Q: What sequence folds into this?
């Protein structure tokens, strides 16, 4: 009991910077509060984030805003069909003066990577990115380099434009902790955007947190308490995607080709801890799990042809599972 009380005090003190950080970036990225919180969850849970939305919804602006507000090293990579793995990783170059080969590091050697329009690059580039995302290492020639912490890939993609794009490999999609769908801002927020742009322009965020703040917060997030009943609830949600009949949802059986992997269970626990931390709590509740479940699970389901024919989305299936699994 004493340990939980001590942890609660630490979380309350340490999580204060989250409120200031969100407030700072929300002054730049108006009307996208949910996206801002999801990116912060990804940063705290040490997980990559895939942002899907139409052009003009401030996806790129949001990533830049976080980089400025946290004083992280930031690189933007525009993914194109002619991109090569060396354009991301770097390469070895012969130095004639020294008569030796030297390594030139690519843009992935940073803290925050914006992979803009990630689905425009071919599979060989995605494979090169996969090692950095999963292992946090990059191999150039016969040398392997460890990436500096924190390292986070924030990728964007357009959901409606298919010409000149390549579907992301399922193995890579599974490496993203969260898939966030970015929606249009409301009327009031769009009025604020118009007022800001037509005036002095959008405000550039000030640095309100440091790299050390993020690393300390990550250590505390790992310590956030998850009760055994919450762990069972998480596992039950994931198992229901593989066997909907087990929760008496026979209507979903024909819609799911492949359910979520164990990486979904791990991701749900990590993201739930980060969500609880942002709320200033040292323990996870079922509401934390529900808050992140859609973004953790929607991209890990492979739907059947029947689901596509009947226009049943992954979001619909995840929501029905959330409604059907008993909450502790």
A:
């Amino acid at each position: 009991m004493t340990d939980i009380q001590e942890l609660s005090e630490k979380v309350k003190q340490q999580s204060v910077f989250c409120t200031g950080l969100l407030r700072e970036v929300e002054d730049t990225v108006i009307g996208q509060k949910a996206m801002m919180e999801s990116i912060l969850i990804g940063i705290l849970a040490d997980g990559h984030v895939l942002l899907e939305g139409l052009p003009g919804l401030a996806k790129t602006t949001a990533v830049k805003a976080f980089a400025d507000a946290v004083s992280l090293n930031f690189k933007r990579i525009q993914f194109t069909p002619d991109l090569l793995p060396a354009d991301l990783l770097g390469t070895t170059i012969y130095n004639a003066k020294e008569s030796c080969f030297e390594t030139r590091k690519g843009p992935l050697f940073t803290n925050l990577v914006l992979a803009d329009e990630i689905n425009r690059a071919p599979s060989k580039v995605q494979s090169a990115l996969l090692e950095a995302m999963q292992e946090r290492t990059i191999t150039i020639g016969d040398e392997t380099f460890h990436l500096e912490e924190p390292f986070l890939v924030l990728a964007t993609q357009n959901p409606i434009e298919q010409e000149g794009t390549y579907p992301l490999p399922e193995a890579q999609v599974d490496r993203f902790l969260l898939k966030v769908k970015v929606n249009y801002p409301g009327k009031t927020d769009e009025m604020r955007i118009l007022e800001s742009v037509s005036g002095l322009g959008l405000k550039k965020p000030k640095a309100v947190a440091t790299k050390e703040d993020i690393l300390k917060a990550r250590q505390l997030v790992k310590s956030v308490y998850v009760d055994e009943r919450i762990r069972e609830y998480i596992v039950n949600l994931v198992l229901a995607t593989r066997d909907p009949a087990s929760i008496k949802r026979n209507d979903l059986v024909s819609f799911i080709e492949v359910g979520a992997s164990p990486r979904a269970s791990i991701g749900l626990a990590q993201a739930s801890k980060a969500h609880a931390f942002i709320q200033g709590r040292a323990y996870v509740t079922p509401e934390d799990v529900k808050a992140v479940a859609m973004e953790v699970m929607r991209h890990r389901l492979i739907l059947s042809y029947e689901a596509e024919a009947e226009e049943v989305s992954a979001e619909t299936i995840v929501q029905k599972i959330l409604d059907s699994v008993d909450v502790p």
Q: What stands out?
A: The radius of gyration is 21 Å. The longest strand covers residues 90-95. The CA atoms of residues 317 and 323 lie 10 Å apart.
